[in-house]
Amino acid sequence: MTGTLAGRGRRPGPIPPQVIAILSAELPTLAEEIIAEVQRSVPEYGRQDGAPKPPVFRITVEQAMTAFVDQVSGGRDSYERRDELCRELGRSEAYQGRSLDALQAAYRVGVQVAWRRMAHVGRMRRLPSGVMTRLADALFAYIDELASLSVEGYLEAQSSADEQSGAHRRLLRLLLRPGTPGGALAEPAQAAGWRVPDEVTMVALPARARCVQEELDEDVLADLGDAEPHLLIPGRYDTGRAQMLRGALPDRRAAVGLTVPLAEAADSLRWARQALALVDAGVLEDGGPTLCERHLLELWLLSDRALLDQLARRELAVLAGMTRSRRMRMTETLGAWLEAQGNAVEAARMLRLHPQTVRYRMRQISETFDEQLADPAARFVLDAVLRAHRLRERRPSLR
């Protein structure tokens, strides 16, 4: 559905007035059927939060069908309103982050529904085959024309958005580059129309995440073309910014880093990406988005897997000669006891055991970890190692 406007200027042969009257009677319900079928058949429109917006999609369908009947009846009215609606539909799709494939699929579904209805009416009313052939030719040429107009609007919006987002991407990449002096940001920030903030919050997105850029605040920088897409939010992530992300990210999957001084933006992004990886691994729950500030301990404990393995080998070396079942029983009990700050009753509740069972096990554990449990610093390290071990047990890939 590209190239010239296939249907412009082409008129079908004369359609009898009684056929025009029959088609006009079908218009009110036909538009509803087309919209429902597009939402059912095209996945991008099937999601509730991605559904076509009535002001653009619904009005375009209604106007298009009305204009088609007028055209085949030989009407000479101007179709400027219809043409602009089709272009606006294309622009809206680009702003919503949907692809041309989805837009063209919607048109294909629309013409199929329209022709199916016409063919049914033609059979029911016993319309002549010659009339039905002219209607078919007119309808498919007409839809090509509308699709071309929407593609025109889509490419126009995409070109405009690419120009602005390109300046934002260059600025964002410069900002995240190690060793970039603060003064080097002034000129590219001015060129991008962006005010340099004191603090920023980075947001990590999954690869190929759909982002509705028109929902982003004007001061948010985005690099959606990166292998690991990300956003920069000037200032803190507050309620307003949270609402913005809900609108911009239909799939809700994201991780929000910590608010840091501008020069430390790369750290905020690194933590956000680490949190997103832990969500993907099943260690952290998908918070839609996940906030790093709520998972600082997990991020710290799992920040260096190799170093954690070395630390565990040293701290848990006394368990090396035990059977796997006994080793798991001891680490589980010791971990709960440390988390409960030595309270056997609380540790028993966590383990769903009788307090006497916990006390019995702890007597054995105390003999094994005698020196470590007596030293506050060593006890802290043991607690950290065992917490990290429990987190990694949630997902075998992190062991």
Automatic annotation (TrEMBL):
Transmembrane region(s): none
Pfam families given in the database record: HTH_30, PucR-like_N
Domain PucR-like N-terminal: 15-176
Domain PucR C-terminal helix-turn-helix, residue spans: 331-388
PANTHER family in UniProt: CARBOHYDRATE DIACID REGULATOR, DNA-BINDING TRANSCRIPTIONAL ACTIVATOR ADER
Protein name: PucR family transcriptional regulator
Organism: Actinomadura darangshiensis
Species lineage: Bacteria, Bacillati, Actinomycetota, Actinomycetes, Streptosporangiales
